[in-house]
Write a structure and sequence with these properties.
By secondary structure, the chain is of the alpha+beta class. It folds into two domains: 117 residues, Nucleotidyltransferase, domain 5, CATH 3.30.420; 82 residues. The protein contains seven helices and nine strands, in the order H-E-E-E-H-E-H-E-H-E-H-H-E-E-E-H. The strands form two sheets. The chain has a five-stranded mixed β-sheet, with helices on both faces.
Length: 226
């Protein structure tokens, strides 16, 4: 018997609220969005997935989410809502079109995107998502079993994917990412006065990077830093 797909949950209590998203201006931009399976950690049998939404206009990553189960339309809705309302880069807006991989699980969301004036197209290849995912894979291969300080001295693909982290390490402080006594990753942003942001919940390097990016973006917003 085929596994029943979870019912799509939108509106109150969900990230995807059409009345809020309709208030955003619409830009002539096209996004790619998809999920990729992350490499399994040693001694773990479960699979984690990372969702990425990328703008084709500038190539910048707009949103990242991670889930520890097979993503369905609810996770895609969360990813796209974050990309529209709480992007890592630029301003909040709705795109004109979203490119997705053909997946029956996404279909329930299509009518709601259409109501927002967003065209949905499917294609086999999503090169911008693939590039962003390869950046994550490179970082995973560099993972160490103890905290490390990461510097980004010149523009890289990773700098494009994590603009808030890049801004932080180039002028405000440094970051630490590493294993916390076998209980998963810990991510910290530190300036000359001490710890500015810390998250001990990530289970992988990818999740730690995503948490740092979001935390530092919110920090810059609170401080009024462009």
């Amino acid at each position: 018997m085929a596994k029943e797909q979870p019912k799509l949950k939108l509106g109150k209590g969900a990230a995807f609220v059409k009345t809020h998203l309709k208030q955003l201006r619409q830009e002539d931009d096209v996004w790619e969005a998809d999920f990729r399976a992350l490499p399994k950690a040693q001694c773990k049998s479960d699979t984690h997935y990372i969702g990425l939404a990328v703008s084709l206009n500038d190539g910048y990553l707009r949103a990242i989410i991670t889930v520890d189960y097979q993503p369905d339309a609810n996770e895609l809705a969360d990813l796209l809502a974050d990309a529209m309302r709480r992007p890592y880069t630029a301003l909040a807006y709705r795109p004109r079109q979203i490119l997705l991989r053909e997946n029956p699980s996404w279909g329930e969301l299509y009518p709601h995107l259409k109501q927002l004036g967003i065209e949905v197209s499917t294609q086999n290849d999503l090169p911008h998502v693939e590039t962003a995912f390869e950046d994550f894979r490179r970082e995973l291969r560099r993972a160490q079993p103890k905290p490390m300080i990461v510097y980004m001295p010149k523009p890289t693909d990773v700098q494009k994917a994590f603009p808030a982290i890049a801004k932080w390490v180039q002028g405000y402080g440094h970051i630490e990412i590493g294993d916390q006594e076998g209980f998963g990753f810990i991510a910290r942003a530190i300036d000359y006065g001490g710890v500015v942001f810390e998250d001990a919940k990530p289970g992988t390097l990818a999740e730690a990077m995503a948490a740092l990016e979001k935390g530092l973006a919110e920090h810059f917003e609170r401080e009024g830093i462009e």
